[in-house]
Amino acid sequence: MEIIRTPDDRFDNLPDYPFAPHYVEVTGLRLDTVDEGKGEGVLCLHGEPSGSFLYRKMIPPLAAQHRVVAPDLVGFGRSDKLIDPADYSFKLHRDVLVGFLEALDLWGITAVVQDWGGLLGLTIATQLPERFA
To answer: What is the per-residue pLDDT across 97-117, written as a single tens digit (0 to 9) for each?
Structure first.
């Protein structure tokens, strides 16, 4: 699997997006994630064609009382992109997200999902119910 990375400076001055890059490596792929606040976890999973930018206005008020985690899925935002479209699959996204939950040691989380993030998040919640509130 050949990957590319979008240079960080391409994300300078995004409107209403004050979040610095925070990278988590899973199965050789680097995911960027917003990780703000403390307390019970809220996992925000975007759909196509957005990224964590979708949740930029929800994150600050939620982070006042919760830990809000909003990754850019593989292929989106600051996260790694795969060169060959055939490398993208539901299984790839699912496996990377499970590894992401494990890497951040997320438990008792509430999922906020949209579009493709719903297919992934709800599938993972049924397969790993102990990780979700």
So the answer is: 999 999 999 999 999 999 999
